[in-house]
Amino acid sequence: MSPGTAEFGFELSVCRWAELSWPPTGDREHAVVVARQLGTQQRRWDTVVLECDPAGLAARQRFGPRELDSDLLHVVRHAPAEWAWYRDALPDPGYPWRYVRAAVHRAADRDVVETRRQGNRIEIRRIAPYPDWLHRLVAIENKPDLDASAARALADQVAHDVETGLADEVWVATEATGERIEPALLADFPVDVGILAFSFDEADSAGGDGAADGPVAAGPARTAASVEWLPSEVTPPGAPGDDERRRRRFELAERAYGRGWRSYVETMRPDCRHFELRRFGRSLLPHCAAKDRSPTAAECAGSCPAFEPEPPAWRTRGWPIEGGPGTGIQALLRGRREWVRERERETSGGGDGG
Length: 354
Description:
Layout: H1 7-21, E1 31-39, E2 44-52, H2 54-60, H3 70-78, E3 84-85, H4 86-89, H5 97-109, E4 113-118, E5 121-126, E6 134-142, H6 148-164, E7 169-175, E8 193-199, E9 224-229, H7 242-259, E10 275-280, E11 283-288, H8 313-316, H9 325-346
Parallel strand pairs: 6-7, 7-8
Antiparallel strand pairs: 1-2, 2-6, 3-5, 4-5, 8-9, 10-11
Helix pairs in contact: 2-9, 3-5
């Protein structure tokens, strides 16, 4: 069964397509970072595309490859250019200052701010201005099998996305049916929501994996995707204020920057002897040799009846990747995540990684 026919495999394929081919309607003008399963307490998106300023993304590198959580962002974004007591330098957080003090220590441990002690006071100084690296945030909800009941349930979710205005664009991605009018166009979605109809093809692997070939513009290496309806920019009344919206968007962007979309391997079990990565089109997707299909993130766990740890011999008898296949898979996907960030910092063209 094609990985694209299951929602998890479809989601990973959409992420890979966005990494290579976003935006769907023209040439890429911004650097692109793709992540998955991000959102707020009220709403989680399947795929998130960050359109970034390349220079800003390069400046973001100064703060390391790991994400800055909300507390660290509060410190880093407002750290002064000259030494100052942290309580004078930072705006009132709205919660006890002792938590800010703890965040200052964490920030110093990660070398994203400088600190010094003057008597009983801790003073801080920024290492660099935190850049305005996020241009636009795009949310994509993936629903490969968009039947009537699924469309009704999804309509309320994407309407919420439009109303909150946290994302600049909202899209629904589904599998193309080949019909003259895609059923997704008949769903009762807000007019601000766009529809992407995908037809993923395993044979698209002929174009290579992108890491060596550079940006992909067209041809068999690009997954066929038809833009059925273009959304307008989401600018609803009643959306969060500019400062609050900016803060929340940077928090989401930081999580996307740190995790990417291939972080699924961190919640699955690549140390199982049955876990593999198999090429599907332009993607490397997880595959379970025991089930002979792409597993979901939930079922690929130590509780799976087919789970078998890697034999120790795999790690000790000349395996070409130190630590065994599972460790090698983790290193490979982590390297691709870092590779795409590096590439996007240098150019607003396509990339590989996640």
